[in-house]
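This section describes the prediction task in plain terms. A model, or a person checking by hand, is given the sequence of a single protein chain and must write out its three-dimensional structure as a string of tokens. No templates, partner chains or ligands are provided. The sample shown here is typical of the held-out split.
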Amino acid sequence: MEERLNALKVALDNELREHEFYLNNARRTRNEMGRAMFQQIAGEELEHYERLKQLSQVWEKSGKWPETVPLQVKQTLVRDILKDMVNNAAAAEKSDAGDLEALRTAIDFEAKGATYYANLAAQLTDPREKAFFTMLADIEHEHYASLKETEEYFTNPAGYYQRTERSGLDGA
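The expected answer:
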């Protein structure tokens, strides 16, 4: 149990650090859609933090996986923000080097988080614990995938449009 509680504390630290990172970048960027994405992920990371904190407190007190902590968190809405960004591209403020750097740092955070939670889930035998950490791994992976798409959009908008619109040079 002690090892799993320590893993939970690492996860708490990571979620809080990521929340603060996303909030800081939401304040910093002039790109409206980038701000919306950073704010959305910041809120989701805060929700993960709060759920993990609640879980940790109950688990430490009772010495077992809590029966009363809900195993659900809200699904990510990051893909919706990316779609909005693409649909409103003409009105969007250009991203700057700081946005791209923040995006790449966030991609790294999310990749590490997804791997961390997936590895943790793989070590667990309790189906509730496994399901909870698998769910967190999936959400972190979704953040990762959405941020990778955003990186492609910022660095190669024409290629992004061609790939997502599935159009060819022949107009098909």
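For orientation: Residues 107 and 145 are 8 Å apart (CA to CA).
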